[in-house]
């Protein structure tokens, strides 16, 4: 019998994994999160579908392992550094969001005759959002580095962390006397003491063990040690009256303190993905399709209420913490679904008798629809914000950040021929650094109050606000500006900022950062003068370095990289013919081009081109002279050469080096001082 049971479990696993592969591939091609495919796949093969796996309990053990793996990975990956930039809204805002959600859901549950424990459990389930889904959508849209992306990540981390106290409170939910009285507080106190003791022992012992294991150089031993830590701590926590999931999370926190945490996470990630996939398929198998179909109106109403309620609550809290309306709306819509750990809590509630099978099916159906709707909601937040802004103009006005009213700083009134930088991220910082070094006036526009403090410390004028807002762009003197650099990490915000800048000053030079190749054409069509894509530029520099290491000449490298750049960017401009560039470069043969700066000590400083006899002495030719910001192309023989001039020279490598020694002679040292 044991052999028959084992074969049946293997058959069930084969059906589950095969379904997961097919559905995961299908939803990947549909550019949807695979977890949706896993849930639907479980529904198809489960007892309420084709019954290929008639007994969902047969894989229950693997689902439990999936929960342990998810919680352990959460502990290893947990980092306060990711919350730090947005800690107010992440910690205080998330705490308020969970508390308000539990109050509303519990109150509604009491109205429908649910017990206090069941209502509170439903509040926990509804309050949590899906980290997998939200991160997937943000990554595909290139919005992880945007302000609403950072705020979303901070809230998601805080929500995941809140799962731990929820699970600590779970054993008391079934007894109302425990829930409302001292037993609840005593139970939480005991859990804190036990967790503290386990934390102390683990923090002092585990890093030592992990160092010894890592010193062997065996990846297998490190992996086995991590798994032993996860399952061992989970088992100890269970024996002490806590849940397996809480113990696994604590094990992950302990492991994260070791120097081997990144390797541990890398080693266990495939196992985590395997068992978490089994968990989501197993959850899908529990969905009663007949119940959902017979109560489709209730499921749709619950889904609409969930999305609307969470979007309004999270958006309102973000707005209250000083974030702009567009950012707040994007965060609210992106986190309006039910999360992975909601499934864990709902399953635990069903096993404990707090939820009926119909209630569980209602939760799963609502969760599935809310997850499917998330990508569509994220696409619609821009037009939706535009409609709301027209109806409620106050949404476009930024609120105070950090308790202080934001305002423009620096001498904005006297700025002329300045550069406006929208976005003080990595690209914006580097541009500003060059401008400051050359004493070029600049104004920084950003919605993140923290980064503006850094910009002000560098002496830059700043304007707090959303660069995608027309009224904010009116504050930076665009009619008098010389250049606008839009370096926002948000594709939608970039296009809006470009559109508004063209309304204010149609003749302004505008440089835009593109996030994806498909954004380049849209930005050129919208009026950008130049578009760059930082990730593509990094690949060009990698090509340049590779060719240099392989011994290619500077001319050859310039030829190849120019062709690559023009093929990538200029294909989007109707009046550009990239083959002409290649033809010009090919006409140069083996000649190199280089800019050389004339040292005032040079013997040719003050002479004309004819008198300097550069061509006769070195063989190199002067194609252009750059002086005081202007360029003299094809200079005449009587054109003088002055100290500080930049000469564009053409010639072979040895010819250019001879000319370089002439225009910038080395300092000779002799006894008694410099000559």
Structural descriptors:
six-stranded parallel β-sheet, Na+/H+ antiporter like fold, four-stranded antiparallel β-sheet, alpha/beta, single chain, 675 residues, disordered C terminus, 29 helices
Overview in brief:
The chain is α/β, with parallel strands linked by helices and 675 residues long. Helices cover 63% and strands 8% of the residues. Mean pLDDT is 77; it is low at 398-408, 572-590 and 669-675.
Textual characterization of the structure:
The chain has 675 residues and is of the alpha/beta class. It folds into three domains: 388 residues, Na+/H+ antiporter like fold (Up-down Bundle); 114 residues, NAD(P)-binding Rossmann-like Domain (Rossmann fold, 3-Layer(aba) Sandwich); 85 residues, Alpha-Beta Plaits, CATH 3.30.70. Helices cover 63% and strands 8% of the residues. The protein has 29 helices and twelve strands. A six-stranded parallel β-sheet has the order 3-2-1-4-5-6, sandwiched between helices. The protein has a four-stranded antiparallel β-sheet with strand order 7-10-8-9. Helix 20 links the parallel strand 2 and strand 3. The longest helix is centred in the middle third of the chain and has 35 residues. It is elongated. The C terminus is likely disordered.
Secondary-structure topology with pairs:
Elements: H1 2-29, H2 34-45, H3 60-77, H4 80-83, H5 87-111, H6 116-127, H7 131-140, H8 147-169, H9 176-180, H10 182-215, H11 219-239, H12 244-256, H13 261-285, H14 289-294, H15 296-320, H16 325-334, H17 340-351, H18 357-391, E1 419-422, H19 426-437, E2 442-446, H20 449-457, E3 461-464, H21 470-473, E4 483-486, H22 491-504, E5 509-513, H23 517-525, E6 530-532, H24 534-549, H25 554-569, H26 578-587, E7 592-597, H27 609-612, H28 614-618, E8 621-627, E9 630-633, E10 646-651, H29 653-663, E11 669-670, E12 673-674
Helix pairs in contact: 1-2, 1-13, 2-13, 3-12, 3-13, 5-6, 5-8, 5-15, 6-17, 7-8, 8-16, 10-11, 10-12, 11-12, 15-16, 15-18, 16-18, 17-18, 24-25, 25-26
